[in-house]
Amino acid sequence: MLAALREGFALSKPALSAFSISKKFADVQAVSKVDLSLAQGKCFALLGRNGAGKTTICEMLVGVIAPDCGEIEILGQPFHATVPNKRDLLENIGVLSQETRLYQKFTVGETLSLFASFYAASLDVATVLELMALTAKRNKRLEQLSGGERQRAYLGAALVGDPDLLFLDEPTTGLDPLSRKNVWEIIEDLKQRGRSIFLTTHHMEEAARLADEIAIIERGEIVAQGGPRQLIQRYCEEDVISVQLDQPLPASDLESLQHSFPPARELAAQSYELKTSETFKAIKYLIALCDRLGIIIQSMEFRKSTLEDVFFQLTGKKLP
Amino acid sequence: MKVSRTQLWWHALRENILCRWREFLREPSAILFVIIMPPLWIAILGTIFSPSDTYRYAVGVVQGSNPAVVAALQADSALQLREGELDELLQAAGKGEVLTVVQAEGKQVYYYLDAKNQESMGAKLYVDNRIQHFFQRRDAVPTTIKPAPPRIRYVDFFIPGLLAFSIMSSSFYGVGMTIVSNRRENLLKRYRVTPMPPLVFILSHIIGRLLVLLVEIAIIVLSGMLLFDFTIKGNPFSFIVYAIIGTTTFTALATLLSSRGRNISTCYSLINLITLPLALFSGVWFDTAWLPRWLAAICSWLPLTPLAEGLRGIAVDATSLTALLPQLLLMCAYTVIASLCAKLLFKWY
User: Fold this and answer.
1) CA angle centred on A235, ends A232 and A237, rounded to 5°
2) Closest CA to B195 of A215, A122, A220
3) Are both A129 and A245 inside the same structural domain?
4) Do B186 and A101 touch (CB under 8 A)?
5) At a CB cut-off of 8 Å and minimum separation 6, what does B124 contact?
6) Which residue of A6, A105, A117 is the best one to mutate when testing the B interface, meaning the one whose CB has the most B CBs within 10 A?
7) How many domains does chain A fold into?
8) How many CB pairs under 8 A join A and B?
9) Residue A256 structural domain
10) Is B29 in CB contact (< 8 Å) with chain A?
């Protein structure tokens, strides 16, 4: 059955798609009209602040919460709480949910064996332990593990069924930088093995590093969607130039600067930031301007635009 | 490794049962409830309520009573006399230290006693008979005492009741609390996004409970046997079957109880609220004969009553399962109703 499901499922079909799904809790519109599509073997990141609706979307996608309206397809098949082939579809899904606590008094090995027993084509527990770099911790109880190790054990439970599609709801929240890097490496490894990954995160660097496609979500709505570079190109100029002057620019000159380089802004009294894809032209303009006004440029810095700039541009807020 | 649907089902069930068993073994309070408490109860209550070999009536005799009467009473080994002033002895009677107080002024005898107290009345009758004989009263007809089977010991009454109580509380705490805490930790939700059939999870709770039941029976019956020569007079197989049916009933009730909640302390209070009256009114610790008739009639419909009655019937009176059919039917009715309600109400998250 599963093999047929896998074979019959043409590569062109997305691993996961949602069409206009919405959810309202009491009088709060948690998610409104979200469309998304995850291509096979790719990683899709839903990026947003806490409370933006990421977990609600994730829970709708895995069939735990029913959307008020809209359709969900998993591996090309309609998916909701009561589809008759739900079990077959679940065979192909691995879930790491944010608020779940597995049995803390169980060892890593016992936890993985328990979850492996639910799947027809599960991976060997030893293989998963190795993937998660937990072989040495096999007989340790979850309560005895560090935060990073425990999260890897949970991740192991999500992929012990050898799923094609993984849902990872904030997989690195609360982890220290090293553990976070470990989890990223595991996810990159999974991508290389052709698994499709749906990821929610409020961590820019995580989305930038792992995702092929990013959707930025704010108050239950997707405000922008695309590849990381695409998003930067679409919403920000390539480079960011910051200058520190010895005195403020006169208002009329600031206006003409903003006119020539539209997103230019005053960061503090004598420091300015402008975004541009014509970096040299901007530098020449700045130097000429300062020469003419007799202003000294104390420092000038360049950097590439990041997702953070996109997020700020779109929501006017910074991520935590 | 790829397995068939049926193999998978059994594999998942086995892992889930193992899971229940580990939950039991690794939960210190479960061990306390099931393994340590019952033998302690048996030892303590069995010792307190064991009848002593020589029962003696404690009787107060007022100072200055007819010395001949006092001497006659002193000669009786069934009496334990205490001499003193009337006031002092009445105080002792109030505290239960003496059952009755006797004052013999010449041939006039007075008894001070609480006429509502059966033991006091018994003591008065005994003492009075003794004194009447001393003053030459003769029996109208000859009487002889012959041995009858010994009255049921408290331990024999208590041990089957303790097993019933243990089945109830370990089901409520073991199944009810586990399900509520699994729900609170979103573990039940996590299970719903795996292909594990829900039936496997529920079955694992029932089977897990039966495994714990075996431990409970072994602990309670063995400690009863070792400490107080407790024996199951009826068919031990019937005893076990009856206990299994009772466990299923209480597992169903525990599942119903935990079908919605997410809050551990609410669940804990609810369990206490239910188990305390059941323990008091279902004849677990004490015979319900002391209850008013209308209340006893209501109590006979409580789920713990048929379990305690049946286990006691088999252990003490060698009652057969067929004779316990009404009790069995009542328990089955509880099982079916609780299961159906639980199925309707149960929320995984």
Assistant:
1) 70
2) A122
3) no
4) yes
5) B99, B100, B111, B113
6) A117
7) 2
8) 79
9) 237-304
10) no
Residues A222 and A244 occupy one common structural domain: no
Give residues with Cβ within 8 angstroms of B22, minimum separation 6: A103, A105, A106, A110
C-alpha distance from B276 to closest chain A C-alpha (Å): 30
Q: Is A128 helix (H, G, I), strand (E, B) or coil?
A: helix
Band of pLDDT at residue A319, cut at 50, 70 and 90: low
User: What is the model's pLDDT at position B207?
Assistant: 94
Domain membership of residue A164 (yes or no) is yes
Closest residue to A100, CB basis, from B5, B16, B186 = B186
Is there a contact between A95 and B190 if contact means CB atoms under 8 Å apart? yes
Last residue of a domain, one of A233, A249, A275: A233
- Say whether A120 and B5 touch across the interface (CB within 8 A): yes
**Contacts of residue B325, Cβ cutoff 8 Å, sequence gap at least 6:** none
**H or E element in which residue A148 lies:** helix A147-159
> Letter for the amino acid at A75?
L
Q: What's the Cα-to-Cα distance from A18 to each of A79, A210, B285, rounded to whole Å?
A: 10, 21, 61
pLDDT single digits (tens) A132-141: 999 999 999 9
A190 in the same domain as A53 = yes
- CATH numbers and ranges of domains, chain B: 5-49+153-345 (no CATH), 57-134 (3.40.190.10)
> Which residues on adjacent β-strands are paired with residue A241?
A274, A302
Who among B18, B26, B349 is closest to A105 (CB)? B26
Tell me, yes or no, whether A83 lies in a domain. Answer: yes
Residue in chain B nearest A161 by alpha carbon: B194
Q: From the candidates A115, A118, A162, which should be mutated to test the interface with B, based on the most B CB atoms within 10 A? A: A118
| Chain A contact set for B1 (CB, 8 A) | 121-122, 124
Percent of chain B past pLDDT 90, that is, above it, reads 63
Which of A233, A253, A269 is the C-terminal boundary of a domain?
A233
B347 touches chain A (CB under 8 A): no
Decide: helix, strand or coil at residue B45. Answer: helix
Domain harbouring A247, CATH code = 3.30.70.1560
Looking at CA atoms only, how far is residue A101 from chain B in angstroms? 5
Query: What pLDDT was estimated at residue B54?
Result: 66
With 70 as the cut, is the pLDDT of residue A1 above it?
Answer: no
Q: What is the bridge-based pairing of β-strands A196-201 and A297-304?
A: unpaired
- Which of B193, B199, B201, B347 to probe by mutation at the A interface, max A CB count within 10 Å? B193
For residue B19, the chain A residues in CB contact (below 8 A) are 103, 106, 110, 114
**Single pTM value for the model:** 0.81
The verdict on A226 and A253 lying in the same domain is: no
Sign of CA dihedral B73, B79, B83, B85: negative
pLDDT score of A11: 52
Q: What is the pLDDT of residues A67-101, one digit of tens each?
A: 999 999 998 889 987 888 888 899 999 999 888 99
